[in-house]
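Regression test case RT-17, inverse folding.

Input:
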C-alpha cells in the first residue's frame, strides 16, 4: 500500500483532515516502522491452520484465566472478553490490534525508537515513523456478518459478536467470521482510557489488513498510511513541544518519573 508522506505533526493533521470523508470518524494506529504489517500478535509468526490459531488462543486464554485470579479486584467481570482485553493490555498474544480515537496518540507510538528488527537487515532501508488511519464504520459495512444488522461498531454485547469471540472450545470453529472487525473494547485500565483505545479483532483470515484493503475495490480508501520524512526523535520532540508527553499516554508513576527525570536533565 502506497503511503502519503508528512513532514510535521501539523501537516499530518492537515492531511488526515483533508482525506477524511465528511461526517465520518477515523481510528488511528502508530508504528515505529513503515515495514510493519497490520497483523495481530497471535498470527505474526507465519501462517498456520485456523484450528492451530484458535487452539493457541484457547490455551492462552485458559492459562491466563487460571493464573490471573489473585490479581483481579473484587467484582471484576470474569468473562472471556474481559480477560481477552486484559491479555492484550499486558502483552499476551491475541487476535486484537490496538487503535486509538486520538491521532496524536498514534503519532506518539510512531515516534518511539525502532527496534533493530524494524530496520532492513541489509541496512538499505531505515524504519520510518508511520501512522495508519481506519474508517471503522466503513470497514464494518463491508464485513458480511454485519451487513443488514444496523451495527456500525461492534460491542461485546452484540450477539453477532460471537462470530469473533475468544475461543474457549474448538466447537466454536464451524461458524467463525473471516474478516477483521472494528470493535469497542473493555476499558479495564487507565492506559486504555488515556489512549482512547479501540480495537480490531481478526477473524479466520491471516492476511494483513492492508492486504485485505487492497484486495477488492469495496475496501478502497478505508485504510490509509502516512509516513514521516524525518527521524523518530524529531517527531517525538515536536510532540513534546505541543505538550503531548509520555505521562499523557501512559498515566502512571513510572512514566511520570521517567518524564520528570528527562525534563530535569538527568
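Golden output:
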Amino acid at each position: 500500500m502506497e503511503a502519503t508522506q508528512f513532514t510535521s505533526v501539523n501537516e499530518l493533521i492537515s492531511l488526515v483532515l483533508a482525506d477524511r470523508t465528511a461526517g465520518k470518524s477515523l481510528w488511528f494506529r502508530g508504528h515505529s516502522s513503515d515495514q510493519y504489517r497490520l497483523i495481530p500478535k497471535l498470527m505474526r509468526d507465519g501462517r498456520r491452520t485456523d484450528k492451530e490459531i484458535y487452539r493457541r488462543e484457547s490455551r492462552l486464554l485458559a492459562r491466563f484465566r487460571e493464573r490471573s485470579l489473585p490479581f483481579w479486584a473484587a467484582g471484576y467481570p470474569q468473562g472471556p472478553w474481559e480477560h481477552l482485553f486484559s491479555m492484550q493490555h499486558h502483552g499476551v498474544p491475541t487476535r486484537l490490534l490496538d487503535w486509538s480515537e486520538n491521532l496524536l496518540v498514534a503519532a506518539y507510538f510512531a515516534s518511539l525508537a525502532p527496534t533493530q528488527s524494524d530496520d532492513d537487515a541489509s541496512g538499505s532501508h531505515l524504519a520510518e515513523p508511520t501512522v495508519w488511519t481506519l474508517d471503522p464504520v466503513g470497514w464494518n459495512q463491508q464485513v458480511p456478518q454485519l451487513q443488514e444488522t444496523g451495527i456500525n461498531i461492534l460491542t461485546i454485547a452484540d450477539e453477532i459478536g460471537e462470530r469473533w469471540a475468544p475461543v474457549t472450545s474448538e466447537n466454536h470453529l464451524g461458524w467463525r467470521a473471516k474478516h477483521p472487525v472494528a470493535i469497542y473494547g473493555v476499558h479495564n485500565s487507565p492506559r486504555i482510557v488515556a489512549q482512547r483505545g479501540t480495537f480490531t479483532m481478526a477473524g479466520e483470515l491471516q492476511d494483513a489488513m492492508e492486504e485485505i484493503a487492497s484486495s477488492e475495490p469495496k475496501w478502497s480508501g478505508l485504510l490509509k498510511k502516512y509516513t514521516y520524512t524525518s527521524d523518530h526523535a524529531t517527531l517525538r520532540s515536536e510532540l513534546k513541544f505541543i505538550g503531548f508527553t509520555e505521562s499523557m499516554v501512559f498515566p502512571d508513576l513510572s512514566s511520570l518519573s521517567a518524564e520528570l527525570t528527562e525534563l530535569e536533565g538527568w
